[in-house]
TrEMBL record:
GO terms for cellular component: cytosol. Residues 18-312 form the NADP-dependent oxidoreductase domain. This is Putative oxidoreductase, aryl-alcohol dehydrogenase like protein. SUPFAM superfamilies: NAD(P)-linked oxidoreductase (SSF51430). It holds the Pfam family Aldo_ket_red.
């Protein structure tokens, strides 16, 4: 990863791919996480993204223990999130100032650090005025606990409101918006991408491999045991349809023509999309991560990029397309 990129208009300089940790503390144990981080750092990466709800705090605890083994804190751009809450097994949000600041202190304790480089509001809370949530960001920045802030899973109008309000006299503009984005999920191109690029926010895509589907491992079917899994049905099932299958076929064809893998093709396409700073690579195992890292230097020829653009083009209409 020779290239580096500025995150929005902030002072954060990051590698063109980040390492996501949503499986750490659940399906990825401490030793596997340590191997992933070592492989990522060896490849030249520096952006480590986590959240307080990943593994009910276990992902942050693992990172804290890894930092305690001698990994230089300054070698990482450390990002975490607060505001997402699980109640009775269902996701909701609490973006009140008091909750956010308490959550931040808990994250700092688990991570074993005195500051977060990028603190992100993990979900929009319709019960709390956005100005109250932004006040928590200002308090955290003033206290030196946070260097920069961003938002996650915000719609286009929510992203714009948050960015404009934060820029209106506060100490530091928002740096980023983290959203699902891949060849299988291009919905953010309708509103989020224009909002982010016009307001100076860098885009951090999560699920860059379409929740695993773009790896082509389900190209010829899903193992019966996995297909019956409730989480698999909810999380991956949305990308197992005829449209997605057609996109995967083109990805596999491009990969064959270029002598590479569907994973490399999918990541290269996304890395070079307008506004994208660093897709966040997530993996359960170091082997999966290494497959992603192996294709980091791939640059798609224009002909192949055009084919991928066309087969995955999102549906557009009024008001995104003027009449």
């Amino acid at each position: 990863m020779k290239e580096s990129r500025r995150l929005g208009e902030s002072d954060l300089i990051v590698s063109p791919f980040g390492l996501g940790t949503s499986t750490w503390g659940t399906t990825t144990d401490h030793d596997a996480a340590a191997s992933q981080l070592a492989a990522y750092l060896d490849a030249g990466g520096n952006l480590l993204d986590t959240a307080d709800v990943y593994g009910a705090g276990q992902a942050e605890r693992i990172i804290g223990r890894l930092l305690g083994t001698g990994i230089p804190r300054e070698s990482l751009v450390l990002a975490t999130k607060s505001a997402a809450v699980i109640v009775d097994g269902k996701p909701t949000a609490n973006a009140s100032s008091g909750y956010l600041l308490n959550a931040l202190d808990a994250s700092l304790s688990r991570l074993g650090t005195d500051h977060i480089d990028l603190w992100q509001l993990h979900a929009w809370d319709r019960t709390v005025p956005i100005d109250e949530s932004l006040k928590a960001i200002e308090t955290a920045i003033a206290a030196g606990k946070v260097r920069n802030a961003g938002v996650c899973n915000y719609s286009g109008w929510q992203t714009a409101v948050a960015a404009v309000r934060q820029a209106g006299g506060n100490s530091r503009p928002l740096a980023s918006v983290q959203v699902e984005y891949s060849l299988l999920e291009r919905g953010i191109e309708r509103e989020v991408v224009p909002a982010a690029t016009n307001l100076g926010l860098g885009i951090l895509p999560w699920a860059p491999l379409g929740r695993g589907v773009l790896s082509a491992k389900y190209r010829h079917g899903v193992p019966e045991k996995r297909a019956e899994n409730r989480f698999f049905k909810w999380y991956v099932g949305r990308h197992l349809n005829d449209r997605a299958a057609g996109i995967v076929e083109v990805v596999a064809s491009v990969a064959d023509e270029l002598g590479t893998t569907p994973v490399a093709v999918s990541l290269a396409w996304l890395r070079d999309r307008p506004g994208v700073v660093a897709p966040l690579i997530g993996a359960r195992t170091v082997e999966q991560l290494e497959e992603s890292l192996a294709g980091l230097d791939l640059h798609l020829p224009e002909e192949h990029r055009r084919r991928l653009d066309e087969v995955s083009a999102p549906r557009r209409g009024y008001p995104e397309v003027s009449i």
